[in-house]
């Protein structure tokens, strides 16, 4: 018996280290732009996906979720957590990993870290939405909440929309200082602000990306002038929102998958018949995105499985011809497919 696993047992595994090598090899702004296009391509073929709200296991401290989907040829899922209290213990709020499998055989074809990839895909999804919803010619974005996702959001908006200035605010000054340091020299004008009000002055896009397991009010109605686009990232769980509901009464709201967003998004504060527009219909040209210069648009982002699928298939394609992965033997592969026990038994010899 060979001590080495057969080729059928092996699948590519992308560690955090290799994901970082891949992103540096390609360049982060290129990755964000290409991911934006990949996600948009998948939103354009929305009907070909299996869609289900993510499976969430809630606890007092946070949530652990599984996010599956399939396009009939490839199946994918992501494991992800959301624990706002982790930060105080020196842990991250969000961590993730994911897998792609071949639908025809059920065999996995890729296993990868997705903590970095989630930040990239969330930023790319925001940029895709903003491409259809942000006011024409916007160059300034307010970034409220300067945690793990912040730089990714800023760079995606730069790469995809041509944003040139970011106005930063966080209740923790150290988070803003970290973001200023990380984005220095990347070609964005950066301004640290003393309040959310100051940050949104003159901004055409307002991104809220805070983490708090409660109904928070990061933005109130009186702060929001006409014509802005709100990219609301942090309200993504039952009982966890960022916007005062009066803003939703004035805004046109765009969502990923309504059954999931009605449970998890800002619109959990609204009646079940509160009108929303599905983003995929805007991408397909079936529904209007931004209608006029005065309209307030809101992307009520919660994160949907199709975006992770897009990110996974992007990484799989990008790995071709590189060594940014290891082969791991994740599938038991007995010589006779029915002789699984024999394989185990022979291994003792
Ligand atoms: N929609 C999506 O697809 C998606 C994807 C990933 C993460 N998220 C959510 O985005 C949020 C941010 O994630 P992260 O990984 O950057 O978290 P993080 O914990 O790294 O950062 C959150 C930041 O928000 C700040 N903050 C908290 N309350 C604030 C307030 N009232 N005003 C200003 N700043 C405040 C904190 O000080 C912290 O710096 C989380 O709620 C997370 O669940 C959403």
Automatic annotation (TrEMBL):
Keyword tags: NAD
InterPro entries from the UniProt entry: NAD(P)-bd_dom_sf, ODC_Mu_crystall, ODC_N
Species of provenance: Rhizobium quercicola
PANTHER family per the UniProt record, alphabetical: KETIMINE REDUCTASE MU-CRYSTALLIN (PTHR13812:SF19)
Keyword NAD among record annotations: yes
Keyword Zinc-finger: no
Signal peptide residues on this chain, from the entry's feature table: none
The family this protein is said to belong to: Belongs to the ornithine cyclodeaminase/mu-crystallin family.
Name assigned to this protein: Ornithine cyclodeaminase
Short name of any one Pfam family annotated for the protein: OCD_Mu_crystall
Coiled-coil blocks: none
